[in-house]
Structures are given as C-alpha cells and as structure tokens.
C-alpha cells in the first residue's frame, strides 16, 4: 500500500490497523462459536451482542433490529427477495431506480423473470431521483420501494427521507442501500424514514465479508438464509465473530472523526477537480455539484477510453476506477452514467476517483502532475480527438 | 490481467500515428462502443512500406493495434491481408477471455486499409491511369 496512491475507496478500503487488532483475538484464542453453550462460546456471544448494540446505536436502531450478514450484496438480496416473498399476496410490483447497484438490480431482474413487475424510476442528469416520480409509480400491488442512499459511481445523495415519508404514507416497505454512506455521513434510520437498510464493513475500513441489515420491528422479510436458526431464525449461518467485532470497531473509528474527515476529503477532492479543469481541456464533471459524497469525483475525458487511463495511471502507481465498458466487463459502459443521459462514447471515457483517510495533499499534487501527461499521450493516439 | 508483452506494447506502442498521404485508410469500430481504430498504409510494389495506427480503446485494443502493425510492416499486401485476430492475440502471448472482443479490431482494421488500397487501385485502373 505504501507506494500506491489509492483513490478507489468506493471499491474497497484498507482495514484499519485498530480494526485488525480488535479482530485478532476472535480469530485465535477466542475462536468460539457464539451459538454454543460453554464458556468459549458465551464469551464470543457476549462480545457479539455488545457489537450489535453499538452498531444499533450508531444508526439509531434497537439492537434486535440489526442482523449480521456477509456484506452489502447479501443484505440487498435479502431485502429485495425477502420483501417480495413475504408480501406476494398483497401484490407483485416493486419500485427502484435506474442507478442502483447490481446487488439490487439483479435480484429485481430475477423476480421479473418470475412474473414480478418492476418500475425503475429514472434519474435526472445529476443522478437525483425525484420523490414525486416514486409517488407516481406506486400502485396498490406495490410491496417494496428500494432507492440507494448515495450512488457508488457518481456519489449523488438521494432524498431518502422524503421518499421514505411517501412510502410510509402509502404503507409500503422502504429499503435503502446505504453501503456508500454508512461511515461517511450520519445515518439515522428514523431521520431517513427507512424500514430496511443495507451496510457493508469493507467500505469504511472494516473487514471484507461482513455487513448488516437493519430491519425495523414488525416489518416482515422472508429469510434468505435458512439453517441453524441464528439471528433469531432470520439469518442462518455461524456468526463471523471476528468480522462482526471488526465491523463494530470500524463504526466506532468512523464516528470519532466523521465530520472532520468528510470536510478534509471534500477539500482535497475540490482542489483536485479545480486543478484538473485548469490543466486539461474538454473534461466534464459527472454528478451533482453539492448533493454528493464528499470524497467522490467522477468526470469524463473527451476522446480517450477509461481502461487505458486506468492502466497509464497504474503505471504511475495511482489506483482509480472507470465507467467504460472494458471495466464493467460487458459491452455496455456504466449503467449509471447512461441513466444520467451521458452518451455512451463519453461514458467510456469516464474516470471515478474516491478519496479516503490516507489521501493527502501530496497525493493530489502528484495526480495533477501525472494526469495531464496521460491524457495528452492518449489523445495523440486517438483517432477521434483532433483539437 | 495482461501479459508482459501486452503491457510492453501498451507502454511503447509501435507505429503510432498517421500517414498523411496514405495509399489506404481503414477505420473500424465506433466511439459508442468505446473502441475505434484507424490504420493508414503506404504500399509500393505490393509491399507494405509503412503502416501507422491510431486507437481509441482499452489496453488490449492499443496493444493489438501496435502488434498488428508490427506484424504487417514489410509484408506483401497479399500476405498481410491474411493476418487474423487470433494470430495477433497469440503474438502478444494471449489475452484474457473477456478481452478477446477488444482485439477483433486490429486485423479488421488492417484488412479495411488494404481493401481501401485495392479499391483505389482498381478505380485508377478503371479510369485508365
């Protein structure tokens, strides 16, 4: 990690050394299964329940409203499939947005193949969902509304509290994928008017392979994982105790420094964009100027392609991400950028930078030093950039 | 993900540029797909004297463009037109399976340039040059 300037924190984050230290005993001396009845297991169970209580209080929930999962994807799958299955008698209609993470879109598509109807509410050019569009999509048969708190590609923060109020008025379960906001912004389930919420540890300096689902009391979801009855018979599987302890520690560390860190990263991010605009012609910002995660910068570069930029930056020991088709693994570029009305040829030339705790002023200076040369070189090679 | 040879061609592409008074121009792909190539060739006595490429695309696209020009330069036109995308990928030590489609443009671009050259030659012959 030392030599690389990592600017892809939306993809994952390094596990904080304090988190690693907190986890270690639960991997070694205290390896007990919390479901067992002897001392070793009981010790693990106590620690786990303390972690649950801590996490609950950070998001404004009761401890028994927090369920541990393997991460954001499992939580999203549980929310979507669990709501559909539990409430099928009411109807078979779901509402979501066009810019959700694949962990929400794919389960919805899977349900569509089984005869469910899905309304995907469009976003505006900044990636914002209009709460009125959600309201208009509601039908008597709607059983779930799922809108992400902030988008992972462009960082746009959605009006979740307003949408939640609309869902509540209509008596429909409201889920938000908060994977990109938990640990970065204050997240309170009552302020946001949510019934179900997904979060993931490795996005805020916790370990990979653990996350949680917040599930409001009296809201019913069919379990995704059937088995040994853990998590009050709602999510089977031996608990990932080290992961859970690590998750709670990550929450702790994130909240200690949240406001300061958000301001610091935003300032770096803004200086970076100002510097890029100054040095490079024909680049445009993707997303919302203010309603955006403080660490996220997504922009498009005319005339060149995203993966080529990533490789050149990697050669200079800088790690970033892109919305080009070659990086999505399909022939289509980022569905988020396309949904925002960005033409495919510009979506292919997009770059996403997401800053984090370890990024410094020096990192920004280095990027501003290196990137103009990368763009110049690739534009010389390009058959379509002639300016 | 990529072989060292692919990265080498990406870092130091061969024959990048444009031949201003080319004898044949081949353009394949399109920016909507994120992949586009323009190949320009100079032919004398049916031999590819010079060949240059410009590419919009990923690492595989750049490397295969560079490699195909290296493979084609100095060859007789009749031989160069036979180069396949598979041969270009093999010459680079292989490409990841999900990148094979990025490599399709290289030999297609060369073929398009040669077809253009032949069409122009044919047109000149028909006009009685």
SSE layout and pairings?
The complex is a heterodimer of chains A (387) and B (129).
Chain A: E1 5-6, H1 17-27, H2 39-59, E2 66-69, H3 72-86, E3 93-97, H4 102-113, E4 117-121, H5 131-137, E5 142-146, H6 160-170, E6 173-177, E7 196-200, E8 211-215, H7 230-233, H8 241-256, H9 258-279, E9 283-286, E10 296-301, H10 306-315, E11 318-319, E12 321-322, H11 325-328, H12 335-339, H13 344-347, E13 350-354, H14 361-381
Parallel strand pairs in A: 1-11, 3-4, 3-5, 5-6, 6-7
Antiparallel strand pairs in A: 2-8, 7-8, 9-10, 10-13, 12-13
Helix pairs in contact in A: 1-8, 2-8, 3-4, 5-6, 9-14, 10-14
Chain B: H1 4-11, E1 24-30, E2 35-44, E3 47-56, H2 59-72, H3 77-80, H4 85-91, H5 100-126
Antiparallel strand pairs in B: 1-2, 2-3
Helix pairs in contact in B: 1-2, 2-4, 2-5, 4-5
Task: Give a structural overview.
The complex is a heterodimer of chains A (387) and B (129). By secondary structure, chain A is an alpha/beta fold. Chain A is built from 14 helices and 13 strands. Chain A has helices spanning 17-27, 39-59, 72-86, 102-113, 131-137, 160-170, 230-233, 241-256, 258-279, 306-315, 325-328, 335-339, 344-347, 361-381, and strands spanning 5-6, 66-69, 93-97, 117-121, 142-146, 173-177, 196-200, 211-215, 283-286, 296-301, 318-319, 321-322, 350-354. A seven-stranded mixed β-sheet of chain A has the order 2-8-7-6-5-3-4, sandwiched between helices. A four-stranded antiparallel β-sheet of chain A has the order 9-10-13-12, with helices on one face. In chain A, strands 1-11 form a two-stranded parallel ribbon. In chain A, helix 1 packs antiparallel against helix 8. Chain A is globular. The mean pLDDT of chain A is 96. By secondary structure, chain B is α+β, with helices and mostly antiparallel strands. Chain B is built from five helices and three strands. Chain B has helices at 4-11, 59-72, 77-80, 85-91, 100-126, and strands spanning 24-30, 35-44, 47-56. Chain B has a three-stranded antiparallel β-sheet with strand order 1-2-3. In chain B, strand 2 (35-44) and strand 3 (47-56) form a beta hairpin. In chain B, helix 2 (59-72) crosses helix 4 (85-91), helix 2 crosses helix 5 (100-126) and helix 4 (85-91) crosses helix 5 (100-126). The longest helix of chain B is centred in the C-terminal third of the chain and has 27 residues, at 100-126. The relative contact order of chain B is 0.22.
